[in-house]
């Protein structure tokens, strides 16, 4: 089982009856996933290098999946591997609305989020304090979206 936010969101959108296509980094990178994710989140030079080596291919894959699926909404969680040009293309070519949920604010605002967030139609953050920072970037639709839980995982258990 994947114990990450993206997986929980995917599961619950399906439970609510939505048709969902999931494109996750763990599916592609296996054991290297967390290392790669943390590196490209924290260091812009590493993200620039990843663009050349790997992210261009991943972003073309995302476009191809979206062309076949024709989504109404593209929800990106964290978004460290979705290039702003890809989001721009998805909006222009498919007419899809785009939303970024960045739950780790304000930790990586300077190293990642300020570069990717402006391309999205909507931005959601877990941090009340980050809302003003997004608005300073010119983002009009920014909202606080606090964490929830996945009841099949996050529940009380009796230890005794």
TrEMBL record:
Q: Which organism is it from?
A: Thermoproteota archaeon
Protein name (database record): Uncharacterized protein
């Amino acid at each position: 089982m994947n114990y990450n936010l993206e997986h929980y969101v995917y599961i619950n959108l399906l439970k609510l009856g939505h048709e969902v296509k999931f494109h996750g980094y763990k599916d592609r990178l296996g054991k290297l996933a967390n290392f790669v994710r943390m590196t490209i989140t924290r260091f812009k030079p590493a993200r620039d290098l990843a663009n050349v080596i790997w992210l261009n291919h991943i972003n073309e894959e995302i476009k191809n999946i979206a062309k076949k699926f024709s989504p109404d909404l593209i929800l990106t969680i964290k978004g460290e591997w979705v290039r702003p040009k890809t989001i721009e293309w998805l909006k222009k070519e498919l007419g899809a609305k785009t939303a970024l949920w960045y739950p780790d604010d304000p930790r990586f605002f300077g190293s990642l989020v300020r570069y990717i967030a402006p391309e999205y139609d909507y931005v959601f953050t877990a941090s009340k304090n980050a809302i003003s920072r997004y608005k300073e970037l010119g983002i009009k639709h920014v909202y606080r979206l606090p964490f929830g839980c996945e009841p099949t995982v996050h529940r009380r258990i009796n230890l005794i």
